[in-house]
Amino acid sequence: MTGLKTDLSTFNNDWYKPGRSLIYRVLWYTINLCFFRSPFPFYGPKRFLLRLFGAKLGVGLIIKPHVSIKYPWLLVIGDHVWIGEEVWIDNLAKVTLKDHSCISQGALLLCGNHNYKKTSFDLLVGEITLEEGAWAGAKTVICPGVRLGANSLLTVGSIATASIEANWIYQGNPAKKLKQREIKY
Fold first, then answer.
1. Which helix (H) or strand (E) element contains residue 24?
2. Residue from 165, 90, 171, 160 nearest 124 by CA
3. Do you find a cis peptide bond into 174, omega within 30 degrees of 0?
4. Would you state the CATH architecture of domain 19-180?
5. Nearest to 85 by CA among 49, 51, 46, 133
6. What residue ranges do the domains of the chain occupy?
7. pLDDT, tens digit, for every residue of 60-71?
8. Low-confidence residues of the chain: pLDDT under 50
9. What's the pLDDT at 91?
10. DSSP for 64-108, written as a single string
11. How many Å apart are CA 34 and CA 28, to the nearest integer?
């Protein structure tokens, strides 16, 4: 034991640049609050606003009410993606949601964390990707740097601290491989 302890007064994330000016971010936060984090139910205006603020979107995005997106300019969404109610996309880094991927209610996509080994509690960031057909179940947590493989399933309430393989179902905290996902016609 070294006797050192966390000292948040030394925290400094000046190196982190979200990619837009403060005014632009404040404008987005206001739009996010009014149209995304609210009960506003209409998909078309949400798609328009996301594109206006730099998100790259395919066709057919379904985005339910009460969703929070930190930085749309760091968001890439494929075709026919579903985002459920109360999803939080805390994308300090790029988040990619490929075609036919689904994020169910209350899921958290967390691109940021802190280095608990450093006294200064340094910020750590990592990209998140949901491959084609991947499904993050309700109340799941996806941590920085995690990739959900194609057609994988992260079950309700599970936490992905590492990438999960394509075509498998994962469950638990931390999520462990449970069984193959079989999709039938």
1. helix 22-31
2. 90
3. yes
4. 3 Solenoid (2.160)
5. 46
6. 19-180
7. 999 999 999 999
8. none
9. 97
10. -SS-EES-GGGEEE-TT-EE-TT-EEE-SS-EEE-TT-EE-TT-E
11. 10
